[in-house]
Amino acid sequence: MEISIHTDGGSRGNPGNAAIGVFVEGDGKVLSGIGKRIGVETNNVAEYKAVIEAFVWLLENKEIHSISKVTFYMDSLLVFSQLTGKYKIKDENIRSMVFTIREKQSELNIPVFWNHIPREKNKDADLLVNRALDNLI
To answer: What fold is seen in the domain 2-133?
Structure first.
């Protein structure tokens, strides 16, 4: 099965109360929607933690759904550009999270593709972030 994952992270204040959103689809069906608070963080950290959470889900569900390919969609140009090697990573904390993502990607051992999309095409993941921040999930 080919999986599409929309990720988003946000904080109210920067840093401020932060949350992540991960929206997973496969074969035209919603497979998971994860929204959770992650404490006080920056927007960028929240964006990366959403990607890490997506890999946790993938690793837990790889066999269940016979996952053969994963395509990520995100509205953070910074995260997209850093994960695809277009931008250098200077911040040590971000570098550590990228290392974690690379480890999980290697462990997953299936093709992963990265896409930057406009914010308005990332509404499902954004909704999960805001519902978590509003304590609705």
So the answer is: Nucleotidyltransferase; domain 5 (3.30.420)
